[in-house]
Design a protein that fits this description.
224 residues
Length: 224
């Protein structure tokens, strides 16, 4: 397999177990994360659909910042001063924020600024598109520095597939990568599920991972 033809992408360590592949669909968000701690403000946000890689990118920042981490639906019961005392805070899935937790988030934004800490927010929706009832918080969210991740393009999806197969020590050919990249949804999460299913099918049937096997697996998954 001529892997160099597939992996003509920016490539950077994820400062953890994984590698994060950089492509036009995510390069602005990667640049924002890489700029820390020299952010345009104490709090920033990244957004993107499921499978765009935002959770992976948030993990990259979490690993390098040592941030306290929680989901937005946990904010209502959170000890905000204790979170900020960590120096960095990661709040994920902001679209799940309850109305009763809005004042907690507003308090968190203010305290992060006062204490010189850092806050990263992630969401499927851009901050300005979230449904927020508290006017002051809605205004703050619209003003946040923000970068959006798009669905992976063809080159990024192919690169992710190659890496996922490599992680499982599966030797596959370029025709299989091209077939999968053109037949599955442009989602890193879907790519991960498909590669795992192919691995299981290969082991159970003692078959090589080929296009015919992939065709069968995609049909079994309802993705054909």
């Amino acid at each position: 397999m001529q892997r160099q033809l597939i992996l003509e992408l920016g490539h950077r360590p994820a400062r953890g177990r994984d590698d994060f592949l950089v492509a036009p669909s995510n390069e602005a968000a990667v640049a924002l994360i890489d700029a820390w701690p020299d952010w345009p403000g104490p709090s920033v946000a990244i957004s993107g659909p499921q499978g765009s890689g935002k959770s992976h990118l948030a993990q990259v920042w979490h690993d390098m910042s040592g941030a306290a981490r929680l989901e937005a639906n946990e904010l209502e019961a959170a000890d905000v001063p204790a979170l900020v005392a960590a120096g960095a805070v990661l709040v994920e899935d902001l679209e799940t924020l309850s109305e009763s937790a809005e004042r907690q988030l507003f308090h968190l934004l203010n305290l992060v600024k006062e204490e010189g800490a850092s806050l990263l927010l992630t969401s499927r929706l851009a901050p300005g598109h979230l449904t927020i009832g508290l006017p002051d918080l809605a205004s703050r969210m619209r003003a946040l520095p923000h970068s959006e991740l798009g669905p992976p393009d063809d080159a990024l999806l192919a690169g992710v597939l190659v890496k996922l197969f490599d992680d499982r020590q599966l030797r596959v050919g370029e025709p299989l990568i091209a077939y999968l990249a053109s037949h599955i949804e442009r989602s890193i999460a879907i790519a991960r599920d498909v590669v795992a299913a192919l691995d299981r099918a290969s082991l159970s049937g003692k078959r090589a991972v080929t296009v015919p096997l992939a065709t069968q697996v995609l049909a079994d998954m309802g993705l054909a």
